[in-house]
Design brief:
The complex is a heterodimer of chains A (241) and B (308). Chain A is built from 10 helices and no strands. The longest helix of chain A has 32 residues, at 46-77. Chain A is mostly helical and 241 residues long. Helix content of chain A is 76%, strand content 0%. Chain B has 2 domains: 3-221, Rossmann fold (3-Layer(aba) Sandwich); 225-290, Alpha-Beta Plaits (2-Layer Sandwich). The chains are: A mainly alpha (241), B alpha/beta (308). The interface between A and B is medium-sized, with 26 and 33 residues.
């Protein structure tokens, strides 16, 4: 059953805006970072390419995560599709889970596109060769950021379910962005989504500075946020009329 | 006879508004059940409760003999439905939309998709995007989707909305064919009397949330009566003469100066002669039928739309 439900969910994205948002959401920050670095006075290294790209990406990603996750649910309410979904012989909990999974995969794909585009465009700005160790470390940070961002997907999904409008999840994204801009520099930010602690990550990237509270601690926070929000979203989706 | 759908005292209250009040419907296998009511009468709310999309304030729904409860999904395999908005994905083609349905219904035979498109004459536009479809085409695609998994029961909420007369006729033909050839039980709602009266074997009439009557079509036909309509200057005297001189008992004064006589239908000339002989001025005399429309009018106190 899961395979069929998942395949049906992915089919809904064919010729839709969401996959393009994932591609463009990865491309634009990489492009802006490149333009920023080639016009800067000092020569860029691969570490500065990664850190600059990540900073620009973080600004846009929170909004796009909200749009990608919110759209996954709102598109069902738009046009009466939710009535259809609720008369299939599929538990509503599974429907919710599959939708969230599809949205999470799109968010992950956006981070993947960002990594690849930055890698491709970074060659134009960075001096020297990119070592395998640096590339791997950079990939790990991108995945860590992805985990933090995916943790927010159920929040936008919840907005989509509760308010059934595009405005709700766009506002959620804007709210996350404002929170990020306000608290990203603070010590507590590393524990609070959506404040991806980019400064700390940048320091780790540049100098190999130890991560506090550590990778597993940050992932645990992301997982906890994800689970709490996903449970709230599932309850709303299952009970919705 | 096997009962397919049974609702018992179905009631739905939205705040202070009582949208549906104690509706009890019984749908037997093979029925084409016409659910007739004006816009806002409570048809869609009843259907939504029947399908488990809305929790009733009171009452219960039994589908295929089992009580509908939250978390029970298996019976949806046996039902096809078109309720309110079709809920298609506009970026996808007709075939892709049905493919989603095929997968969600767990239908393994891909030929069912082609059959469903052909049944509603949509095969030619299978690769056209739904966003380019007219309302009528969407309705037909909705019916294709409802039929794809070969359900035992089909629930159609106002299926001819947005269709042209040819499309309406086509849907009627399809419903009759499904019922007669495939033995599918059909529950179809409409606010248009002529639609229902041509296809339904049973009719439920809902008005202001209350099911006024549930009746077999044959019974309903019997309510059709022929009569002589008389227009006279003095209905009181005419009524007196009808009873005393002509021994007519089955008549009704419908409005001042207008009398309907339901017997001695072949004696209109004699009635006219007898009344005129007594000095009454008969300004009109005609043979007519009391239609279903009249019957519903009497039942609900307001008129139904009778044609397309």
């Amino acid at each position: 059953m899961f395979k069929n439900v998942f395949a049906a969910e992915m089919l809904k994205y064919r010729r839709s805006l969401s996959p393009w948002l994932a591609v463009l959401g990865g491309f634009f920050p990489a492009l802006v970072a490149l333009l920023f670095l080639v016009t800067a006075d000092s020569a860029a290294t691969w570490d500065t390419v990664a850190a600059t790209g990540l900073n620009f990406f973080n600004m846009l990603a929170l909004l796009l995560v909200s749009v990608l996750a919110g759209r996954a649910f709102e598109m069902e309410y738009h046009g009466g599709g939710i009535n259809r979904m609720h008369v299939y012989p599929i538990p509503r909990g599974l429907q919710y889970l599959v939708k969230l999974l599809a949205a999470a995969l799109l968010v992950l794909a956006m981070h993947g596109f960002f990594f690849l585009f930055t890698l491709a465009l970074g060659r134009l700005a960075a001096g020297g060769a990119l070592t395998a160790a640096a590339a791997l470390r950079w990939l790990k940070i991108t995945l860590l950021v992805a985990a933090g961002n995916i943790a927010l997907a159920p929040l936008a999904a919840l907005a989509g379910i509760l308010f059934r409008s595009a405005g709700a999840y766009i506002l959620t994204g804007i709210g996350c962005f404002v929170a990020y801009m306000s608290f990203a520099g603070s010590e507590a930010a590393r524990f609070a989504q959506p404040c991806v602690p980019s400064e700390m990550l940048t320091a780790w990237l540049a100098g190999g500075q130890a991560l506090t509270p550590g990778l597993s601690g940050m992932l645990a926070v992301s997982a906890a946020v994800f689970l709490i929000l996903a449970c709230a979203g599932a309850v709303c989706y299952i009970r919705a009329e | 006879m096997e009962t397919i759908v049974k609702t018992v005292g179905l009631t739905k209250r939205f705040g202070r508004k009582l949208a549906v009040n104690g509706v009890s419907i019984t749908l037997e296998r093979g029925d084409v059940y016409g659910f007739l009511g004006q816009n806002g009468a409570g048809k869609t709310t009843t259907i939504r409760m029947m399908m488990g999309l809305l929790r009733p304030t009171e009452g219960r729904v039994l589908l295929f003999g089992e009580e509908m409860r939250p978390g029970k999904y298996a019976h949806y395999n046996r039902i096809g439905s078109v309720i309110e908005q079709a809920g298609f994905y506009p970026n996808l083609t007709a075939a892709e939309n049905l493919e989603i349905h095929r997968r969600l219904m767990g239908v393994t035979n891909r030929n069912y998709l082609d059959e469903a498109l052909e049944l509603t004459g949509m095969a030619d536009v299978r690769n056209k995007k739904v966003k380019d479809f007219s309302l009528g085409m969407r309705q037909r695609l909705g019916i294709s989707r409802a039929l794809l998994h070969k359900p035992e029961l089909i629930v159609l909420d106002e299926p001819t909305n947005g269709l042209d007369p040819v499309g309406i006729k086509e849907i009627r033909r399809l419903i009759v064919e499904l019922s007669e050839k495939r033995k599918v039980t059909v529950f179809v709602s409409s606010h248009i009397l002529s639609e229902i009266q041509q296809i339904a074997t049973r009719i439920g009439i809902i008005h202001e949330g209350v099911l006024l009557e549930e009746i077999g079509y044959e019974q309903l036909r019997q309510k059709n009566r022929s009569y002589i309509e008389l227009r006279v200057d003095d209905d009181r005297q005419a009524a007196f003469l009808l009873e005393t001189e002509l021994h007519v008992a089955d008549y009704r004064v419908t409005e001042p100066g207008v009398i309907r006589i339901y017997e001695r239908l072949d004696d209109s000339a004699a009635i006219n002669k007898a009344l005129s002989a007594k000095g009454l001025k008969v300004s009109g005399l005609s043979l007519a039928n009391e239609t279903l429309e009249d019957y519903f009018l009497k039942l609900t106190g307001s008129a139904f739309r009778i044609g397309e």
